[in-house]
Amino acid sequence: MVISMTSKDEKFILWFEETGIEDVPLVGGKNASLGEMIRELAGKGISVPNGFAITADAYKHLLKHGGVEDEIKQILSDLDTHNIQNLRSKGKQIRELIENIDFPDELTDAIKKAYDEMGSRFDYGSDPPTEPYHTARIRDSDTSTYTCPSPCKKWCALIHHPRVSCSR
Fold first, then answer.
1. pTM over 0.85
2. CATH code for the domain defined by 8-159
């Protein structure tokens, strides 16, 4: 019998209880901290809201699927971090690129499945509370060569939930 194992760095979704502070490059600081608190405090009777993180690998997959990686690198090739107008312009160009990417089916399916599972998994009911963060940024990765904004609005839109809002 062969069992296929998927490592953390090959997943689009990780449940908070699967994460810890060592996963900052994969899920961002806030999500890793939530996972760490769940792992360390749940046994002591302290309740920490549970949920899932969309990984940096999901984000990288979105960029690759959308074919915008080289274009983002080109936009950032003359980035001037001391010029606020340059930063705004580059950020706007990259946001527009990302907002126009069609989500790959496998990413859409993973996010929807995790959201649907979250209600029953944590006794949240059929309408679980959500608060998407945009912390799984390429910036947190040791191997990254550029910084990109998160497609947080797209993540939210996938869930099709009227109360979902994105923090910036």
1. no
2. 3.30.1490
